[in-house]
Amino acid sequence: MPDICLGFEVHQPLRINRDFRKELGEGKRPEELFDIYFDNCWNRAILERVARKCYLPANEIILENIDRFKGDGKKFKVCFSLSGILVEQLERWAPEALESFRDLARSGCVELLDQTYYHSLSSLFSSDRAEFIEQVELHRALMRDCFGQEPIVFENTEFLYNNSIARTLEALGYSGVFTEGAERILGWRSPNHLYRADGAGIVVLLRNYRLSDDIAFRFSNRDWPGWPLTADKYAAWLSATPGDCINIFIDYETFGEHQWPETGIMEFFRWLPIEVLKRENLAFKTPSELISSHSPVGVISVGDFETVSWADEERSTSAWLGNDMQRTCYRALKGMEAPVKGSRNESLIKIWRLLQASDLLYYMYTQPRPSRSVHEYFSSQPPAAAFWALMRILSDLNERIAEALPEPARSSSLFLRVVPPDRAFHFHEGGAYAGLSAHSLEEFGDAILLASDGSIGFHMARGDFERWIRHTIGDADLADEVGGMRLGGIGELRAALREAVRRRVSELRARGGFGWG
Fold this sequence. Notes:
Layout: E1 3-10, H1 34-37, H2 40-69, E2 78-82, H3 84-93, H4 95-106, E3 110-112, H5 130-147, E4 153-155, H6 163-171, E5 176-180, H7 183-186, E6 194-197, E7 203-207, H8 209-216, H9 231-239, E8 245-251, H10 265-278, E9 283-284, H11 287-293, E10 299-300, H12 318-321, H13 324-335, H14 337-343, H15 346-354, H16 358-362, H17 371-378, H18 383-403, H19 409-416, E11 425-429, E12 432-438, H20 441-450, H21 453-462, H22 464-473, H23 476-483, H24 490-512
Parallel strand pairs: 1-2, 1-8, 1-9, 2-3, 4-5, 5-7, 6-10
Antiparallel strand pairs: 6-7, 11-12
Helix pairs in contact: 2-4, 2-10, 3-4, 9-10, 13-18, 14-15, 18-19, 19-24, 20-24, 22-23
């Protein structure tokens, strides 16, 4: 008798101001940056539309079905994972929708999950996961203060999971964690059971992605053999599925936003609980009820360099870290942690965290279809445009953080900052761009290892490296050292450049008290 756990991810990012230029922020205080870095007219319009099309009608359907079965032996139950960013937007622009989520939380049939407050990739930042833990605690307080619940089950951003994350969550007191039931971590085993994390006691709940994606992605696809998907047909599939539990977890915006009402998705949702509970072998349970009802049947092990997610066919971190643009932005965000917290400026810390939303890196995805078509659906601009827009903002924020620090941390942070693409060092060879750029000293040191001999010789002969370090980065000491290099072979020159930059970055981090992150 499989128990059905129906879960919903509820999140809307704050989309950035694509037209941001440095001059827009001149003379502005940190607390004014929110309306300069983010396009809040656009954000409000999207949030109000999603609330109207999805949150309010879908919440009403859930409450109707909870009431319908509240006197029966088998009740309709669901779970939600609401990001802190989403809750803040609801408070500001759609309070009626927020109150409807509170009504769900008060129903006794809805379990809330914890996640990172800012829907970030902070679980990947460092081995100590300090920022991740802070965001988890912020979210835990939000669920308690806003909804009156203290979650014991966790759903990490984009279902990101590995053994180390599991151990961190167990230490924070969580009993269970959701992740993707991907074949590469399951092998021959089924996702329709509970498992235990390798090296920890926390329970792992695995999403049945095939049955989840039948609703989320294939519902309106007329070329799909399963079309049209009706509630009774889907309930029959669930009834015939073996296992202890079936975890169906999808974006809540599937209902009415991604799948329009004209597709019949709302009527499907309205009738699904009725059809499921008709079947004697099916019942709805919340995640914590699954944990108390079933025992793990095995161990799930995912190494730190094999992190799993629910995104794309790869189900890895490649949706956010798969190309140089994404990695540049990720490293910039990660590198700001020590300086921004050292500034003790709550407005700057808040902005930095809002910019960590995984969506902003997701928009830069460049791999071929079919995965790219999904990314393009959520993005409103080409990947390169998304990169330029975010990097302009990150560069400006980086400078503001540095200015808020005392010496010597201030100058160290300025030398280590990222610069926007129009001020990056772009390697050339044979009169053409070589496809390699550096947006910071640290990235420049890595690029030296990748640049061709011809490119290094060309730029060194012209003094380009020295000029960029002196006039763009502002580090006269390193510029003097690079300008004074007189080595014969390109191999020796490459090694000397790399070592000089590596040593300087290390010195600046130590002087600023930033560590290595």
